[in-house]
DNA sequence: GACACGTGGAC
DNA sequence: TGTCCAAGTGT
């Protein structure tokens, strides 16, 4: 066994097995040295943060069709971008996406910076994304460390230190492995490897191009790496939402505050969400409220939510204390974050 | 370092 | 059903 796997072997494997994705250039162009559009690389990398390729594809197509350049995106309305992001999760990404686009236009003449250092100054761009954009869009030998790379490095070098304490050591290994040639393809190759072969459960070691150089494979420990600190259990929080339909078909919605959970997104007015029972609150408009028989259930990263749904039909002349009515023709439950959409689906009986 | 921050698919 | 997990960042 070699001390270090060969990055060239992985690149050859990648040339034959690269997954097709809308933000990647095809094999023929790549062979000619054509680099992908930095705007598209950046967009895809933001969307891919903690999110699967399958979930991202359609969102990426819609965003780039609607806003083909960073200048187009910078000129977009906040509400349109948030509505387009609805359902993808981690909504701070969407707020930072727009902030970043406007920053690139005003401070960089609409041209994405090409160094890790400069990329790190952009909103929503951290160490991973800066490295990914620098290597994939600008052919720079940046170190790219995501969850896949952490897992692959932990296995190749049989590192048993649990995450996140192991991160510096794994990053060091990843940096030492990164080749000067085709760093962007190499980064994507390791991530493809982690997503398709060196998977968290049941890794397909028999298909791995690095099998003969992998220390965990030799030790029989691949499937149990990387070690992780156990997670805390999720508490259950309760809340109430109010779905008011006006007689003309309009719905009462509010734009949530920019900070915090579902920040900047549309939602049904309601109570806060707390353990035990929903906190005291007022209805957003005077009406004959009826409570649905079942609750809307949803699970966030760190708690389970059970929403009591109250509904009412209200006359034209009533004024809400919070939010605003959205006309029937402008209403689309697809513009709501999933927890809010579930409450609506329960109300409609779907 | 620890925690907040979404969602849907896999097992 | 419940838990784990995915191309992380900001505070």
TrEMBL record:
Enumerate the SMART domains for this protein. Answer: ENDO3c, FES
Signal peptide range: none
Catalytic reactions on record = Hydrolyzes free adenine bases from 7,8-dihydro-8-oxoguanine:adenine mismatched double-stranded DNA, leaving an apurinic site
Q: What class of enzyme is it?
A: hydrolase
Which EC numbers characterise this protein's activity in its record? 3.2.2.31
- Residues forming the HhH-GPD domain are 47-196
The family assignment reads: Belongs to the Nth/MutY family.
Report the protein name in the record.
Adenine DNA glycosylase
Organism this protein belongs to: Shimia sagamensis
